[in-house]
Amino acid sequence: MSSTAKERKNPKFGHLPLSTSGPLETTLSGTALLRTPYFNKGSAHTTEERDTFKLHGLLPAHVQTLEEQARRAYAQYSSRADDLAKNTFMTSLKEQNEVLYYKLILDHLKEMFPIIYTPTEGDAIANYSRLFRRPEGCYLNIEDIGQVEDSIKQWGGPDDVDLIVVSDGEQILGIGDQGVGAILISVAKLVIYTLCAGIHPSRTLPVVLDCGTNNKDLLDDELYLGLKQHRERGDNYDEFVSTFVSACRKRYPKAYLHFEDFGVTNARRILDKYTPEIACFNDDVQGTGCVTLAAVMTAFEVSGVKWDEARFVMFGSGSAGTGIADQVKDAISHYTDKSKEEAGRQIWCVDKPGLLLKSKKDQLNPAQVLYARDDHEWQGKEHNDLLSVVREVKPHVLIGTSTVPGSFTEEIVREMGKHVDRPIIFPLSNPTRLHEAKPQDLFDWTDGKALVATGSPFPPVKYQGKEYDISECNNSVTFPGIGLGAVLSRTRLLPPSLIVAAVKALASSAPVLKGTGAGLLPDVTDVREISVKIARNVIRQSVKEGLAQETDIPTEDADLEEWIREQMWDAVYRPLKLVEEEGATAHARGETGVASSKRTGN
Predict the structure, then answer these.
(1) Which of 130, 289, 415, 432 would you label with 482, given CA atoms 20 to 30 Å apart?
(2) What is the model's pTM?
(3) Which residue has the higher pLDDT, 22 or 431?
(4) Is 438 annotated in the active site?
């Protein structure tokens, strides 16, 4: 990637408010400029910029390129003793120079993704209060509900925020309740949005809803920074969430809202409550379902399985499992004209009580009840373990979100292989130590016939002298493109039809269908171009349904894709232009973004 932004964009769309062509306007100079991460170039400020912005004496004499800076930063990063130290280094870099931070990650995406996201980000979150150096977003707590609106207003005017990610920290990255440390998952998700879809980093807002914590280790930790009380539930909790959503709608009426890592009892019902009202998304409920559905679509193309005959067994029926089931159910209905209820009968969900049955409704949450089977179907049949269910259902597709390591045993996999030609098996639990099966074993136990995707990265499988890439069902190839489409179209809502459009774009990019490999999903290294395709489909569908609030959206695919690319932020240094304070935007004054040192609080 070039270190400057010259001539990379389509000048046809350079007039757009989110255009990334041309210079960045700023009122800042001297140390104020260098302390603003989205303006600071450090040693890469040109001679002309050093003159204009009074930087002489504040920087070493030699002017470096972004590429030279990235090489130095990578050497510093590599010298850190362990992954958590590397994560901390990257956090520090982000607070100093946003362009260099993203450039470094993009140069080493495969290597750094596990450092700045799962699994290492989970360690950073678990140690949040001990590693804390400076605040990184908006901290709202349930004891100060009257302060929510004023707190939200501090992050800019109505047009300054495009995307808000919020978590209440109850179910973080497979490590459970992390209380106020959840601010880091909101930050990390926004980093992924920028890396993978070019969402402008200074136009985003990470939020934590501190409702207390049930994590005893945190409550007993004298350094813990959040509310030292057990989690609030019931009406007070709902009022807190409602107050937050209302404040966001009032202050940032065009912003897209992403819910992240809410607990299983709240994630689905909150999403269901607000989906008819605002453009919102829950990655745990919908994101995993989207990317998994895309892999299923590809596997069906390869195996010849028809949607009207496909049988699915879900092992693990929490937010992710039922979210995948929802996406599968919508797809079955879409492709077969079956009702949602009929489509749901092709899905069998297994969880801690065994197969979900209607007689167990007192043990089930509302999302699980939708997939509970009639007891009479299973009278006299074993249904309390996965093997019994697989033996009876004879599924084409087995999906694991159980976090039970090794639960897809050889006996279960061989039983599945007796009844279908190409077993489709997705052990999706992460981190890696929690996976239901190793891809190599799945190939060995099915004589190389299994179609496999995983929830964590795995090396290629070797079978009969050939190597087969294993696709990772990484939400990061899905939710950023959906968010980009939502932001650029300013869609009023995000109904299932827009998500289905996104999934089709993702599935069509699979290497196995394009003849470029064996993967059921595209690799994360191709994600920015994939995000363009996903955003294009989302925008098209939003316009078709009359939901898009943005005007003058191009109608031709080629123009629309250029329109999208023009508005995607790149990790390049753009020229700076000094402007007068009067009439300048909040961005030009250095007042936007989570690392702003000039936010006024108005």
Answers:
(1) 432
(2) 0.90
(3) 22
(4) no
